[in-house]
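pipeline: protein-struct stage 2 | run 1193 | Allantoin permease
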Amino acid sequence: MVSTTPEPHQDDLDGGRTAPPGGAARVEAHGIDHIPDAERRGRPRDLFAVWAAANVNYLSLLVGGALVLMGLSFWQAVAVIVVGNLFWLLTGFLAISGPAAGAPSEVITRAVYGVRGNRLNNAVTGWLISVCYFALNLAAAASAAFALVRKTGLPLSTGIQAAVVVAIAALTLAVSVYGHALIVRLYLPITLVLTAVFAVVAVFVVDHADPGQVPAAPLTGTDLWATVLAGVTLIASGPLSYTTSADFSRYLPRTASAKAITGWTALGAFVPSVAVCSLGALAATAVDMTDPQTALAAILPGWFEPVFLLALVLGTIAINALTAYSAGLALQAVGLRVRRTVSVLADGTVSVALTLYALLVSDFLDTVSDVLQLTVVLLGPAMTVYATDIALRRNHYDAAALADERPGSPFWYRAGVNPAGALALAAGAGAAALCVNTLYTGPVAEALGGVDVALPAGVVVTAVVYAALMRTQVERATR
């Protein structure tokens, strides 16, 4: 059964008070504490715009173009884009645990890793990776904003660059600080605006593109399969980075349809991501997508280019607001007894510092980007073990038990760590590491001629190990 009453000490995480029902005009007071039934609101279909706004963005355009640059034809790239984006179904499936537990993903995964083990999980897969993604996205938005500054004739000095980065981050963090209600309210109009802008871009791209274009040296055999699987992994890294989808569904009534939650979440991300990535791939048949902003400017009318650049900034703000929101919850779940607003601002400060250092001092973002290529080794198994736990428990979570962090609590397991969760994650990540072919070539990938099967290997091994170790224990706990 799902309990509706959290442990009293849990409220300490949000300043020792119970949050009143919130609206878009007031700062959300809830953090990782339980959401009472009286404060539940909304419909599953509201999730569509939340995920759509976050996926009509510059990085999706860039990734789509990259597939053609890797040697795929346009139609091969589209096939890869569709398959890779199917992983949004997993993101949607994780979202059903939010209303069931009335808690964010960062708390629900205590059932997977244990109270102490989950703190480490949140520190790495929740906070560290989120901050890195925030920095990468912020740098992309800053690049578009710098182009706008140049159009005004102002000198792009170091001070102006820093001011631009801080201004974009401030707008992003304002949305994250106000929280869930504002995100739900804003993201539908943002989705409509971004869709309109990218539709105009599509008109001009289609006018210049050649979808039937064949690469000068078409890939065949092992080289083709290696590129296809690398492309699927690249696309799938997007949905795999959102193991926190319950953060945005937890305010829904516990009676909300699980199928509707999964469907609207997955569809909201899948449709725009496929469309924008495919647009990037199509553009790559007409222009050099190694520098999309400059290349697309050559085929867009002059009056529209500033609108396009502003849309790139807006799309990045939308995706980063979700990232910062979840990173703030992760920081609380690590064990820092601060309000959600404080943790969000702390995450933003670190991300801005990394971005400024990267843009103004070194090539740090290149290093971060390389590291994030390897996150599929960890994020694939992390999403799988969470999804397997939901399936084993049939999405039944005890809110009071999840909120109880005391030794001997239901999810304390052994010294605060669930051996099954830790072993399954380690086994899955280990299997993926043997099969990877990005910054290094694992022995399995080498034996396969460079074909990277890290994603399926990590997913299958994790699911099998966790189900084998936890099935009996979960059956006893849910009787």
